[in-house]
Design brief:
Elements lengths: L1 H35 L14 H23 L6
Helix pairs in contact: 1-2
């Protein structure tokens, strides 16, 4: 009985973590896209940052978002 409950609890946490990782990856990738295409979306009127900073921050968001997405879709998602 104890192992059954523990296994289902661990599966539930694993599914939650997978959904959380994918959601956070989408948010980080959207942030990276907004940093890269800020001129195209006319967001530079709202946030006036240097172009080099935007590309640097966008590339960091892109790398971290890719990592979170990879971790979320990985089959054997360890805790």
């Amino acid at each position: 009985m104890e192992n059954n409950w523990r296994d289902s609890s661990q599966r539930g946490f694993s599914n939650f973590r997978r959904v959380y990782d994918i959601t956070m990856a989408i948010l980080f990738l959207a942030m990276a896209a907004s940093m890269f295409f800020m001129d195209y979306f006319k967001l530079n009127l709202v946030i006036a940052e240097d172009k080099a900073f935007r590309y640097f921050f966008g590339s960091i968001c892109l790398l971290y978002g890719g990592f979170r997405f990879y971790r979320g879709v990985q089959q054997n998602n360890t805790i």
